[in-house]
Design goal:
One of its GO terms (molecular function) is ATP binding. This is ABC transmembrane type-1 domain-containing protein. InterPro entries: ABC1_TM_sf (IPR036640). By secondary structure, this protein is mainly α. It is 84% helix and 0% strand. It has a domain at 42-84. It contains three helices and no strands. Helix 2 runs antiparallel to helix 3 (90-100). The longest helix is centred in the middle third of the chain and has 39 residues, at 44-82. The mean pLDDT is 78.
Length: 101
């Protein structure tokens, strides 16, 4: 009797495992299709504009850290010149500012 129940339990468990596998696979397929469904009614102009906007947003995102580096160097030049007891001359300061500008 217990053996029969154990077999029924393992069969039930295997069937539920199979159902869960099916559901997760179905959900993954459905999820991947919904991402691209946005472009279903897009014209060529729409796709072009979205591509250009993605490229420009990437370019803007990379420009911000570069500006931090340049402005950081510029602030260091100003701090080095205007600190008391500095050895930086006016010519050195102007040339370093012109180089970073």
């Amino acid at each position: 009797m217990q053996l029969k129940k154990a077999k029924e339990w393992s069969t039930w468990r295997r069937s539920k495992k199979l159902d869960l596998t099916f559901l997760t696979t179905f959900h993954r397929r459905r999820k991947s299709r919904t991402k691209m469904r946005v472009f279903k009614y897009a014209t060529k102009l729409d796709v072009f504009l979205i591509s250009v906007s993605c490229f420009t947003s990437i370019a803007a995102g990379t420009a911000i850290p570069l500006m931090n580096i340049v402005f950081g160097e510029l602030v260091n030049d100003f701090a080095g010149y205007f600190m008391p007891d500095t050895t930086v001359t006016k010519q050195q300061f102007q040339s370093s500012v012109n180089q970073n500008a």
